[in-house]
Amino acid sequence: MLGFIKKDLLMIKSNIKIFAILLLIYVVMAFQGQMDLSFLLPFMSVMIMMSTFSYDSYNKWDAYTISLPDGRKNSVKAKYLATLILIIATTIIITTLSFTISYAKTKTIDFVNITAAIFGSLFATILLQSFIYPAMYKFGPEKARIGLMTIIFCVAVIGGFIVQYVDFSTIINVLNYIQEYWIIVFLITMILMLYISYKISERIYIKKEM
Amino acid sequence: MENILEVKDLCKKYKEFELKNVNITLPKGMIMGFIGENGAGKTTTIKAILGITGDYTGEIKLFGLDNRKDDRKIKENVGAVLDDMFFPEILTPNDINTIMKDIYKNWDSKLYFKYLSDFALPRNKAIKTLSKGMRKKLEIATAISHHPKLLILDEPTAGLDPVARNEVIDIFQSFIQNEECSIFLSSHITTDLEHIADYITFINNGNIILSKTREELLEDYGIVKCSKEEFEKIDKNDFIQYKKSKYEYKVLIENRKTFSKKYKINTIDKITLEELMVLMIKGEK
Fold this sequence. Notes:
With 210 residues, chain A is mainly alpha-helical. Chain A has nine helices and no strands. Chain A has one domain (2-207). Chain A has helices at 2-14, 16-31, 40-58, 61-66, 71-106, 111-139, 141-165, 169-178, 182-207. Chain A starts with a helix and ends with a helix. Chain B is built from eleven helices and 14 strands. Chain A binds chain B through residues 1-4, 6-7, 10-11, 14-15, 52, 55-56, 58-61, 63-64, 66-72, 207, 209-210, and chain B through 47, 50-55, 71-72, 75-76, 78, 80, 82, 84-91, 95, 98-105, 126, 152.
C-alpha cells in the first residue's frame, strides 16, 4: 500500500516546480489584495491530483498496477490517501501564508475570518474531489474533466437561482443551531463524503475492464 | 514435471472477438513462446493470466494456485512486462526503486541498481526521456528485481533494434539459468523465439491451433516446395496446409521423415516459425 501512495506523491513532487511558481504568483496577488489565498486550496489540490490521473491514464498504469501484488485492492485506496496527504499539506501551507500575509499587511492576524475561509475552501475541495474521483475511474480523466466543468457550471447556475428565489431562514436557523459544533459537523461531513466517494470508486475500479 | 502455469478452457467474449477454450501448460524451468498475428488473442490471454481481465470463464493456475483466490501469493512470484503499460513517464528509475521496495516483499534494490548499471540506464532521468530500447530494458529490470519465478512478457522485443534485442534475449537466458524459473513470452519476432523458446504455442483468432516443443516443430515439421502436378499427387491427409504462389506450391507437413519415405522426396526444407505462421494463417487445406 505504501508503495502506491509513494508513487502518487513522487508524481506530485515531479511537478512541484510548476505549482510552486503558481503559488508564488498567487501570493503576490494576495499581498496586493487582488485575491483571497484560501481560494487556492481547492484549485491547487484538484489540479495536482487530476494531473496524476492523466499520467496514470496515458501510461496505462491502472492495468499495470493489477500485475503487482494487491494492486487492484490498494490502488484506489492509495489515491485517496495521497489526496488526503496533499490536502493536509496544502491546507497547512495556505493557512500559514494567509496568516503571514494578514500579519504583514495589518500587524494583526484575523484568525476567525481566515479559519472560516480555509474551512469553506477545504469543504469545497473535498466536495469536488468526492464527485470527480468516481468519474475519473469510470470515464477516464478526459471525459471527467469535461464533467467537472459541467458540474461547476450547473452549480453556479443552480446557486444563482437558489440565491434569488429560495427563503434562507430555515437554513440560517440550522446553521445557527450547529454554530457551536460547526467544525465537528464539517469534519464528519467531509470524512463521510470522501468515504462514500472512495467506496464508489473502488467498486468501479474492481469491475472495470482494463 | 511440475507445471508453473496451467490455463484450462479459458473463454473470454468481447463484442467482436472471442477467446475459445484456450489451454496452455508451461512446465517449470521452460520458456514458452506465444505467437499469433495481431488481434489473435495474445494480449487478452496474458491479461487474463495476470488477472487484469477478470470477466472470463475457465481456470488459471500459477504455481498450482488459483489466480482468482491467491492473487497476492501469485503476484509476489511473477514479473510482468506488458505492451505499453508501465509507470507514469514523469517518474525516474530511482522513483521506481522507492515505490517497488514497498510493493514487493522480496524487492532487491541492489539487484535492480546492478541491472540499471549493466544496461547503462540513468537513475535520475524521467522515463519519458529514455529511448524505446532503454525503456524496455527498464521495464525488464523492474520485472525481474524481486526474484520472480515466472516472467510474463508481452512483446518485450517489439520496436527494438537488433543490438537491444540481443541484449534483452541475453537477460532472459541468464534469468532461465535458475531451473526454478520460467518465461511465458509473446512475440511477433519469431526468430528470437527460435533461439530461446522450449515450447511454441500458436494462437489464431482466439483458438490455440498448435502447442509443441521447439524441437518437434523445427525438426519434424517441414515445407515441401513442388509443382502443381507434384502437389496433386499428395494425399490430403498427409499435409496440414498449403499455399499456392506464382511458380510453386508450398506444402506444410507434420513429419519430414515419414513424408520423405512415402513420397520419395529428399529435399524437404525445415520450417521457420515465420513460415509456419504464414502457412497456418494464410494457407488452405
